[in-house]
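hey so i finally got around to running the thing on that chain from the lab meeting. sorry it took forever, my laptop kept dying and i had to restart like 3 times. anyway pasting the input first so we r on the same page abt which one it is
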Amino acid sequence: MNHLPEPARVVQLPDGRHIYAETLPHPYTGPQIVHQHIHQAPPDRTVQRIALGSGVGAGAVAAGVYFGPLLIAALTAIAANLAFLAFLALVLGWCVHTVVKSVGSPDGTQAVKNVRKARRRR
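ok and heres what got predicted. didnt touch it at all, straight out
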């Protein structure tokens, strides 16, 4: 009983190279062409290159590389929070306006008409 694996079979390809038969693609049609699609551009390092060329230390450039995107992320989060708070204030103001308008009495309606008439007379 032999527990050793079978010796690998070497095959010569049409282009003259030798490979093991286990790595041979089943229908071998020649070298494969890989189509790589790039969906995001690499980060632009122009500012860092200019900084290094002007004598700024590598530590300052590294800090700019690290803290630059971090600062942008923090400012974006702050802007998103402020936008949400502005929207919330708008909705609450609309709610208060609607409630006051629907609960208003005839005296309030008459007061609004009097104020409008007084503004027109000026």
